[in-house]
Design brief:
Helix content: over 70%
Distance between the termini: 37 Å
Number of helices: 5
Number of domains: 1
Number of strands: 0
Mean pLDDT: 81
Order of helices and strands: HHHHH
Strand content: under 5%
Shape: globular
Length: 92
């Protein structure tokens, strides 16, 4: 893993949150890594240059669906997710 990626993982592991908030935080970090790697691959191998503004939107959207579809306690509100992912997860 690249030095910056390793530093981000170490930082994320050290964040103190309650169980639910930590699950949401970890999911967003994983989705962000995946998205950054995908953008990197598009830059190296693709013919089109990826747009920076789409990166954040993709991370936000994929994180929401990934967490929401694995959740047992009911579905989260998209509007609440946009305001505060932690609150959207903790309240239905």
């Amino acid at each position: 893993m690249a030095p910056y990626g390793y530093a981000l993982v170490r930082w994320a592991d050290g964040v103190t949150l309650n169980r639910e908030a930590k699950m949401v935080f970890d999911a967003v970090i994983i989705v962000a890594f995946r998205n950054i790697w995908s953008v990197r691959n598009k830059l190296v191998f693709g013919s089109e240059k990826p747009r920076k503004d789409e990166m954040f939107d993709d991370i936000r959207t994929v994180s929401y669906f990934w967490i929401n579809n694995r959740r047992r306690l009911g579905k989260m509100s998209w509007d609440r997710w946009l305001i505060s992912p932690h609150l959207a997860y903790c309240t239905v």
